[in-house]
Amino acid sequence: MSAGDGVGPGRAGDGANPGRPRPGRRELLYAVLLGVAGAGLSIWAVSQAWVVELAPRPAPLPPVRVARTGAQLLPWLPALALVTLAGWGAVLATRGRVRRLLGGVLTGLAMAVAAGGGYGLVAGFSGAISRQWPLLCLFGGGCAAVAGVLTAVRGERWSVMGARYERPAGATTGPVSGRSARDAWDALDRGADPTDD
């Protein structure tokens, strides 16, 4: 196969590396993966025990350990993290200005998730406080916020879902002029492509 026959790796329009994704597509992939990983990490961290309290009982019974998760301490935090996670699916389905706007919204949501993790680090909860879970929530929210900023700044240039299947502007619809539908079916019956001229 030669580079000019339209088949194979040297095909026009493929660029230097046809097997590698284009930079815009790669950025989209990295941003979505970072956002999903950050939101997922935050959801997981919120579901862990952030505080363990000892509740006294009458003697001779030992005190009862009561573990409270981040979701119990900050009930709004898992909801924000779930909305942030779902938003990354919407990033794949949108384009242009809507995608950039969605990136800004996701940045705000992720920053709120990170703020919840930060609050869990500095709040004066009673009992033994486990610092690693609020820290992971803060880190996950930060990762999702970075991905949101990347989407807000560069999202308009990224490829869109299903763009290669859309009809080009100005394309006509309906049967090919000069041919009937019966001619097209007859061509299919013969094994020929009715769209070839």
What's the short story on this structure?
This protein has six helices and three strands. Helix 1 runs antiparallel to helix 3 (76-93), helix 1 (23-46) runs antiparallel to helix 5 and helix 3 (76-93) packs antiparallel against helix 4. With 197 residues, the chain is mainly α.
Give the radius of gyration. 27 Å
> Structural class, from secondary structure content?
mainly alpha
User: What's the helix count?
Assistant: 6
CATH architecture: Up-down Bundle
Mean of residue pLDDT? 82
Low-pLDDT segments, ≥5 res: 1-15
How would you write the strand order of the largest sheet? 2-1-3
Distance between the termini: 24 Å
CATH class group = Mainly Alpha
Ordered list of secondary-structure elements with their pairings:
Blueprint: H1 23-46, E1 49-55, E2 64-69, H2 70-73, H3 76-93, H4 96-122, E3 128-129, H5 132-154, H6 181-190
Antiparallel strand pairs: 1-2, 1-3
Helix pairs in contact: 1-3, 1-5, 3-4, 4-5
Structure overview:
- The structure is a single chain.
- With 197 residues, this protein is mainly alpha-helical.
- It has a single domain (23-160), classed as Four Helix Bundle (Hemerythrin (Met), subunit A) (Up-down Bundle).
- Helices cover 54% and strands 8% of the residues.
- The protein has helices at 23-46, 70-73, 76-93, 96-122, 132-154, 181-190, and strands at 49-55, 64-69, 128-129.
- A three-stranded antiparallel beta sheet has the order 2-1-3.
- β1 (49-55) and β2 (64-69) form a beta hairpin.
Please describe the structure with a list of short key phrases separated by commas or semicolons.
three-stranded antiparallel beta sheet, disordered N terminus, 197 residues, Four Helix Bundle (Hemerythrin (Met), subunit A), mainly alpha, single chain, 6 helices
